T9SS C-terminal target domain-containing protein (Lacinutrix iliipiscaria), 432 residues
Amino acid sequence: MKHLPQILCLFFLMLGNAYAQQEKGIIGTNNWLSSWTEFRPDLVEYGEATEILTGTISTDTKLLKKHTYMLLGDVFVTNNAVLTIEPGTVIIGDFKTKGSLTITKGATIIADGLETDPIVFTSNRSVKKAGDWGGLIILGDAPINTYGGGSPSGYNFAVNPSVNINYGGDNIESNSGILRYVRIEYAGKRKRDGGNFYALLLAGIGTETTIDNVMVSYSAGNSVDVFGGQVYLEKMVSYKSNRLDYNFSSGAQCDIYNSLAIRSSYISNSEGSRCMNIKSNEYEEDIDFSKKETSVTAINLTLINVSDDLDYEIKLGLVKEAIYVGKNTSLNMKESVISGFSPAVLLENKIKINNESLSKIKFQKMYFNNCNGNIFTEYNNNNEDLENWYGNSSFFNVYSKGLDSETFIDIRDDKRPDFRLRINKIIASNED
C-alpha cells in the first residue's frame, strides 16, 4: 500500500484532465451528439405520408409513431388544444403548399422524443434541399418589448381571420409545451415577400416551456429565432444553416447552454449569415424602452466554421463574423469556443466603446481559435480599445491558431462527429 498516495495522485490528475477538456465549448463526458442527431439526412429514407394534417387542430390530438404525417399548407393548433407527438414520429412538410406548423398562443405542443427515438420534421421531396417546407412556429404569451404585441405577419399565412397568430403578453411563466429530442430538417421555405420562414420560431415563449436536444439542419432561413419571452435552451444544434443559427430579438431573455453551431462558407448566404445575432428589435421605432432589452447568457457554446482552406475562403469574402451584437442589448458569454471566423465578434457601430457599454457585453474564459481578428466595431478596422479591454488577463480569454484536427476531437466523421475540444492537443496563448 506504500504506492497508494502516488496512485491517488495519478487518479486525480487523470480525473482533472478529463474535466479540463470540458471547460470550454460543448461539454459532456460522452459525445451527446452520437445517438439522436443526423448529419447526413439526405441519406435517410422516411417513407411516404400515411396521414394528412391540414387547416386547424382545435381539439387535443395525438400523433402516433406508426403513421407518417404530412403538413399540407399552413397548419394551426388553436383553441388551447394540446398536440402530443409520440417519440419516433415523422412529420413531413409539403413542398408545393409550403407546409408549416404553428402552435398558437394558449395551445401546447408535447414533442417529447427519446434519445434513441427522436421526433423528425423533414421534407417530402425525394432529393431534399434547404427550404423545401416552412417550419415550426410556437407562439406564447410571455413579454416582448414591442408596442402592441407581435405577429409573424411576414409569413402571409392563408388563414381564416378567426385564427389568432399574435404573440406576447404578461405571463413570464408561460408554458407552450416540450420540444425534446427533435430534429428539424430542410425547412426555411421562401416566403411571398422574398424572405424565408424560420425553421424554428419561438415567439413570446415562457419559462415553463422545455426546449432541449433540438437539431436544425440545412435551413434556408434562420435555424432558431427567439422573439421576446424568457426561455432556457440546452443542447441545441444548428447545422449548415443558410442564414442565422441563433437569432435573438424583441426583448428576448434567453439562457443558451451547451449548444453548437456548425457553419460552411459555401452554404452561408452572402448577407447576414452568422452564428448568433443579438438585437433589441429589427426596427428601433417599434421598441418600447420601458420594457426589457434583449439579453442573452451563453455558456459552453461551440461556434465553428468548418473549412478545408480558411484563408482562401476569407479572401473570397465567404467568411463573416460569428457573433453580431446590436445596441440596447446585453450578452454574457463565457467558457465558449469561436473557431474559424472573420472576425469572431462584430459590434454595431452605434455602440459607444466605453465602460458602460462594454460592461453589458462580456466575454470571459473564451477560446478564440483561428479567427481573422477577434472583436471589432462595425465599419472600423481599428480595434485597439476592444483588444485592450477583452485581452485583459482578468477575463481569462485564450487565443490560438490551431488546426481543426488539433483543436476538436473528430469533426470529419460524417456519421458521428465530435465537436468537443481535444485535451492536451491545443497550443494556445493569451496573445492574438
Remarks:
- The first strand starts at residue 51 and ends at 57.
- The radius of gyration is 22 Å.
